[in-house]
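Sequence of Aquaporin 7 (Meleagris gallopavo).
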Amino acid sequence: MDLLYSCRLDPESKMLEKIQKMLTIRSSSIRELLAEALGMYVLMVLGLSSVAQVVLGKGEFGQYLSINLGFGIGVTMGIHAAGGISGAHLNAAITLTHCIFGNLPWRKLPAYLLGQFLGSFLGAATVFGLYYDALCDYTKGNFTVTGPTGTASIFSTYPSPYMSLSGSFFTEFMATVMLFLGILVIHDEKNNEALKGTQALLTGILVLGIGMGMGMNTGYAINPSRDLPPRIFTAIAGWGVDVFRAGNYWWWVPLVAPTLGSLAGGLIYKLLIDIHNQPVLERGNEKGQTVIESSTL
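Predicted 3D structure, token representation.
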């Protein structure tokens, strides 16, 4: 009986194996693109939906901390989704910084950016569909960027009314400096790196901390891939070109400031820690015993 059952399943198993082989992607760049897209999608759906629930729920279904937790959890889960394939950059500024520092070949840059932007755009579209009825009820069908029923901030960041453009730029710059510094601290094998398996969680906690301490001024975009694709989506979905005009044409700041902040954070860590912290060396002492030496300043 078991033999007949096995023989009956065998053709199906072979068919499934053939389908799997046909669907398997050989190109490492395409696999990395898809991984970044999925990781970014998970991050954005969890993050943006937390914003939507707070805004559209009028404070009855969460507060500002809910948004911080949503993005922190989104980052953690996004890293788990993509980390083993692409390293889970999930941030165009970080990807560009890795290319400049020689940690990632420049030829891979387009695939990473395209994956991140695709995942972010689809994440915004998903949250829009998920909360479409609530959006229509909250705004009476009139999607506006600012004002009492402004809802564009659910999807992209905008500066607080009291913020100057220079102050907003500095906020995003410093927040991203802390982001990339923290990431380097967590992953530096030559220093006090995090325990294996905890990196994703700690990175999520890092983002949570940045949101809790630096989110009031600008909404802590700290990521061009998090901000631009949803902004483009909202321009298409009914908010119009005002998403690019609002905040004194704020839209370019979440692209430039995080990029410069990531580069500055990487440079600071390299100058203060990395170049002085050489790998541990082994050598024999005068008695023929092995001793451990580490480099000193």
